[in-house]
Amino acid sequence: MACQVLVSQKGPLPIKVNFNSPGDLMVCLQMDGSVWSTSGNQMLGIQIAVDGQNVGTAQIFSNGASTHRAVVSSFVPLKLTYGPHSIALTAMANTTSDLNDLFTAVIHY
Hints:
There is one protein chain. By secondary structure, the chain is mainly β. The chain has a single domain (3-108), classed as Jelly Rolls, CATH 2.60.120.230. The protein has no helices and nine strands. It has strands at 3-10, 15-21, 25-35, 42-50, 53-62, 69-70, 74-80, 83-91, 102-108. Strands 1, 3, 6, 7 and 9 form a five-stranded antiparallel beta sheet that branches. A four-stranded antiparallel beta sheet has the order 2-8-4-5, with no helix packed on it. The mean pLDDT is 97.
């Protein structure tokens, strides 16, 4: 199975990168990362957009404040067309990120 790493970098969010699809394909986008909140008992997460359209989220519920949490991996099926595309990762409500957070987005063909 082939894969294409789209994002592999430190925060903070938002992160936006451009990439090329090698064909008209059904793919699976995998999103991983870490985030935190200044207050406890919050649903935290990363909003995922491809070509400006929201396609999914990667989330975690955090009981504690000011603690970096790894979001649960998100797998999003996508239909891509050949050529250029963009992916944008943004923080959901109540979510903070900084240079201590890491983000990875990979497309599996």
